[in-house]
Design goal:
- 38% of the residues lie in helices and 17% in strands.
- By secondary structure, the chain is α/β, with parallel strands linked by helices.
- The protein has one domain: Rossmann fold.
- β4, α6 and β5 form a beta-alpha-beta unit.
- α1 runs parallel beside α5, α1 runs antiparallel to α10 and α8 packs parallel to α9.
- The radius of gyration is 18 Å and the shape is globular.
- The structure holds S-adenosylmethionine.
- S-adenosylmethionine binds next to α7.
- S-adenosylmethionine (SAM) binds next to α7.
């Protein structure tokens, strides 16, 4: 059984990137009335407490959404559009000034989806699946939201294509098992064969590991071979090098330094919408001089 619990990481810089992109994509897709299906192959628990035990243990939100909120409150310039939208959405889950609750991808999506849309949530971990079930039950969403305690890689393609032929698929594994990288590429490859016009979004960590570097390349090859447009965005907040220890000190591995989002069939407006927000994220969430962003697109 895997040990990854997203609650430790909720609201960190990777979530800021991932959920800002997710909202920008959904905003665009929801401009059309036709029903949209969102498939979240690795959903997590759905809602997280930022002041709870898990989040408090590593305090990753302190260097992510909490830092962003604090910086935004004193910034001279307003936040760029997509980033402002992200922060406003997180605030909608919180009453008052302090951010205590953080919405994961299932709740970001459900918050934006309409009556005619559908949300399919996969979560394999028994504890998180139970929590997700409980959180979704509060919404009284009926058939609009389905929680599946199944392998997201295994069966999520069964919803593709949906009857309306409009879908966004988010694949956001924990990558704690090395094979998650290859399974992600294989899943997107299969899904693309079944439903070539779906929008696919994959989050991945940027860490010194060959599989992690290989994944965006493989996704780009899949998109290019299928003749589909793609977009790749990344956010780095610090160097990936090990911290230098003083004599007698334990060498500590720094936390996640960077991550990326790779999209196939992204909205054509996405790159222009994201660019200023990525630049501001890199500036506001910088932990050292290596902070930066990249944004590429093609096809
Ligand atoms: N997408 C969520 C968000 O943005 O709020 C975070 C998801 S977290 C990074 C990854 C989740 O996938 C974990 O909760 C883990 O238990 C779950 N998981 C791991 N392997 C899975 C699989 N094969 N199928 C479905 N869920 C899986």
């Amino acid at each position: 059984m895997f040990s990854y619990r997203h609650a430790f990481h909720a609201g960190n810089h990777a979530d800021v990137l991932k959920h800002t992109v997710l909202i920008a994509v959904l905003d665009h897709l929801l401009e059309k009335d036709t029903a949209l299906t969102v498939v979240d192959t690795h959903a997590g628990a759905g809602l997280y407490r930022l002041d709870g035990d898990y989040a408090g243990t590593s305090g990753e939100a302190a260097e992510g959404v909490l830092r962003l909120a604090e910086a935004a409150a004193t910034a001279k310039e307003p936040l760029p559009d997509a980033l402002a939208r992200y922060l406003a959405l997180v605030r909608e889950f919180n009453r008052g000034e302090a951010l205590r609750v953080y919405p994961g991808s299932p709740f970001v999506a459900q918050h934006l989806l309409r009556e005619q849309d559908r949300l399919k949530l996969y979560e394999l971990h028994p504890t998180d699946a139970k929590t997700l079930d409980g959180n979704v039950a509060q919404l009284d969403a009926g058939r609009r939201i389905a929680v599946l305690r199944e392998d997201g890689f295994g069966s999520a393609t069964k919803f593709l294509p949906p009857p309306s032929r409009r879908a966004l698929v988010l694949t956001d594994p924990s990558y704690e098992i090395k094979t998650d990288y290859a399974r992600t590429a294989a899943y997107v490859g299969d899904a693309l064969k079944r439903f070539a016009t779906g929008v696919y979004a994959v989050w991945y960590p940027i860490i010194p590991r060959p599989e992690a570097h290989e994944l965006p390349r493989r996704l780009k090859t899949l998109a290019t071979k299928a003749g589909k447009p793609w977009l790749s965005a990344s956010l780095t907040v610090k160097s990936s090098r090990m911290a230098t220890a003083l004599p007698g000190e334990t060498v500590r591995r720094p936390g996640l330094p960077a991550s990326g989002m790779f999209l196939i069939n992204p909205p054509h407006t996405l790159a222009a919408r994201l660019r200023p927000s990525l630049a501001r994220m890199a500036q506001m969430l910088a932990q050292d001089a290596n902070a930066a962003f990249t944004l590429e697109h093609g096809g």
